[in-house]
Amino acid sequence: MSRVARRRGLRVLGYVASVTVVLALWQYLSGRAIIPLLFPSPISTWKVGWGLAAKGQLGADAWASLGRILAGFVLGSALGVVGGMFMGSFRPVRLFFEPYVQFLRFLPALAWIPAVMLWLGTGERAKITLLAYTTVFIVALNTMVGVTRVPRNQVRAARSFGASRWQIFCLVTIPATVGYMLTGMRLAMGNCFMTVVAAELVASDTGLGYLIFSSRQWMQTELAFVGIFVLGMMGLVADQIFRAATGKLLWRYESSLGHSRQ
Amino acid sequence: MAYITFGGVDFRYGLDDPLIIRNFNLELERGELFTLVGPSGCGKTTVLHMLAGFESPSAGVLQVDARPVRGPQRDRIVIFQEPDSLYPWLTGLENVEFPLRVMGVPRAERRSRAEEALRLVGLHGHGEKHPGHLSGGMKQRIQLARALVLDAPVLLMDEPFAALDAQTRQILQEELVQIAARTQRTILFITHDIQEAIFLADRIGVMTAGPEATLKTIVDVPLPRPRMRGSAAFGLLYEEINQVLSVEVRRVLRREDSLL
Amino acid sequence: MSRALRASWPFSIKAFAFRADAASITVLSVLAVVLVWQVASTRWVPSILFPTPLKTAEAWMALVREGVLPYHVSVSLYRIALGFLLGTLVGVPVGLAMGLFRPVLILLEPYVQFFRFVPPVAWIIPAILWFGIGETSKIFLIFYTTVFLVLLNTMAGVAAVARNQIRSARCFGATRWQLFLWVSLPATMPYVLTGMRLAMGNSFAAVVGAEFIAAQAGLGFLIIDSGTWMATDRMFAGMLTLGLLGILADVLFRMVMARRAGRYLMPS
């Protein structure tokens, strides 16, 4: 077996061993030490989770959260890309929006939850707006940076070839900025998870955040654990999707000779 | 009438900025390979950028083929030192096709012209790789092919081989001479390397140290081609130019020293 | 921006008839928005829902005068400070250990790679169940936020130490301990500091989120409580304070980094 394969195999083995040990420890401890109410065992968590899944409720909650994220994310990304392109290309536009961008960067989307709920109620519209807000910012910022970082010589070369400004924009600026857009989107996705959970904890009757919240109402901590677990899985899958997309789109930019432009 | 004329050219960035180039006078004939050497920071690149059209002279006259230079155009193509002007999302072939694509040339013709250009620079069959996966020498050849595909009469080369290893550099120098000989291209080549300058040039211009740099002297290179880097004539010329250049280089060093 | 750079700008701004310089545009922009805000909230929207800038400013000053704002701010800051400190104290060593010792990496990695995708706010409910509604639950949340970010960045830092830096130290005969203290550790500092700065930013969001859901004090509590009572001017004042605090924290952090850790910072 090659050295690389052996290393990887050992690593996987190590993970499995580690997780098994911790699960076993957890099971053991929650049986003995603390009130099982506060810290349910893995087995009991699994049972509850499976029950919810069988009833279709887990799926419904997961889908509710996911749907909101997707809607807000897509909307926010579209606006963010366009906005970022404008801000990056036209200096006056960037200067005009700069004070707000610089201030609102430090005001997390979370902080807007009470305000948005006041204005738009506690329905889907409010949550999607929040998520779109979360996304727009990060994507616009990253896109803007990308536009300003297009190598000067790429633009100069295109000008020498007689390209019109529109051609330069379509054939040079946009492809050169794709990497930054994707980075922004990946960061925004992470923040979307955070925002949606917070929004659902504050005021919702569906979604994974609500599931976690309900654990307190029903005095069933397993529900919180199930919700957290599913959240983690969703985040992991989303991240993997982004990595795959980035890999597929950006492999050609990547240098195999050590001259990569991060 | 000379093909390219610099007449009393001055350059400064803004109205309140110091003068970088002063009273630059140079005439280039069509088909000439002219190298420009000078100490670091003297403004050689600025001269090239003015000819390319990326910057405008603050005073004086700059003409190509009796017409004033007004912005970048297809007749003057730059080959940059860093190949960051290549587009990493396109293959090598697509990069060479790019200028034709901008012009609206149909696909089939684009492809055949680009492949011809790649053949000229010795990259036949290597067009499918992306710049990120090409070596330094190959990237510079792609830049060259891009200029050749347009059949640009003027090539502006800004230390294009400086970042390459010595062996690749020599090979590319020889190939450049061959390409220049085959067509009537006028080439302005900037370099720090006197050896490279002598090997390539019909004439060599030496610039003074900045600021307010200007052309100090022009040296003819009457050596027959192909040139032997080790020959006695080569060596004598090297010494002559080195003498002139090192005076200027020393001025720069002395100034840096006194600032410390 | 130099003229040379502007010449290569993809779009020309010759459309601008007058020479607009950066500062004047910024000032103009802020004035314009404040004006629109004032007009919008007095004419177009019921002002109970959307306070005017003047009302927000008034509410802000009232809150400060009454001592309400300083109180809530200090509560939130206390939670952040404690959680942040604990999180850093745990995150750095663990991150270093994971970066340097493969068994530790293998042991801990599955959890790190999984739980980093669970937003801190999700833990507030279990935290309350375990620690009650008091300070501990919020501090735990901040701790959680900080640990992950610092840990991940520290790990990345260890991996990024230039191989040649280690090699030359070994040429000089450095022991493993010397290598760690004098090469790996300093080289990792910029990453650790970046992780800390990111964690600080995220901590504000986490604490506010926690205070929305289960708190009797704190800036987040102030915001949501004001919202519940339709005191939108106080709500906005709270949000404004939050933003300002975030900026202040970031600026202070950078200043401290520049003065104390300047030589560790990566050239950027």
Strand content of chain B: 15-25%
Identify the CATH homologous superfamily of the largest domain in chain A: MetI-like
- Main pleated sheet of chain A: none
Shape of chain A: flat
So what's the oligomer here?
Answer: heterotrimer
Biggest β-sheet: strands ordered side by side in the sheet of chain B = 6-7-8-3-9-10
CATH overall fold name of the domain at 4-75 and 153-259 in chain B: Rossmann fold
Q: What about the largest sheet of chain B?
A: 6 strands, mixed
CATH topology of the largest domain in chain A: MetI-like fold
Could you say how many structural domains of chain A there are in total? 2
By CATH, the superfamily of the domain at 4-75 and 153-259 in chain B comes out as: P-loop containing nucleotide triphosphate hydrolases
Pick out the low-confidence regions of chain A. Answer: 256-262
Features:
heterotrimer, A: 262 residues, mainly alpha, MetI-like fold, 0% strand, disordered C terminus, C: 268 residues, 11 helices, disordered N terminus
Describe this structure in words.
- The complex is a heterotrimer of chains A (262), B (260) and C (268).
- Chain A has helices spanning 3-32, 42-55, 57-89, 91-104, 113-120, 124-148, 152-160, 165-202, 208-217, 221-250.
- Chain A is mostly helical and 262 residues long.
- In chain A, helix 2 crosses helix 10, helix 7 (152-160) runs antiparallel to helix 8 and helix 9 packs antiparallel against helix 10 (221-250).
- Chain B has 260 residues and is α/β, with parallel strands linked by helices.
- In chain B, 39% of the residues lie in helices and 21% in strands.
- Chain B contains 7 helices and 10 strands.
- The longest helix of chain B is centred in the C-terminal third of the chain and has 28 residues, at 232-259.
- In chain B, 46% of the residues are buried.
- Chain C has 268 residues and is mainly alpha-helical.
- The radius of gyration of chain C is 24 Å and the shape is elongated.
- The two termini of chain C are 18 Å apart.
- Classes of the chains: A mainly alpha (262), B alpha/beta (260), C mainly alpha (268).
- The interface between A and C is large, with 70 and 68 residues.
What layout of secondary structure does this protein have?
The complex is a heterotrimer of chains A (262), B (260) and C (268).
Chain A: H1 3-32, H2 42-55, H3 57-89, H4 91-104, H5 113-120, H6 124-148, H7 152-160, H8 165-202, H9 208-217, H10 221-250
Chain B: E1 4-11, E2 21-28, E3 33-37, H1 44-52, E4 59-64, E5 67-68, E6 76-79, H2 92-103, H3 107-120, H4 136-149, E7 154-158, H5 166-182, E8 186-190, H6 194-200, E9 203-207, E10 215-220, H7 232-259
Parallel strand pairs in B: 3-8, 3-9, 6-7, 7-8
Antiparallel strand pairs in B: 1-2, 1-4, 4-5, 9-10
Helix pairs in contact in B: 2-3, 2-4, 3-4, 6-7
Chain C: H1 3-7, H2 22-44, H3 53-66, H4 68-100, H5 102-115, H6 124-131, H7 135-160, H8 163-171, H9 176-213, H10 219-228, H11 232-260
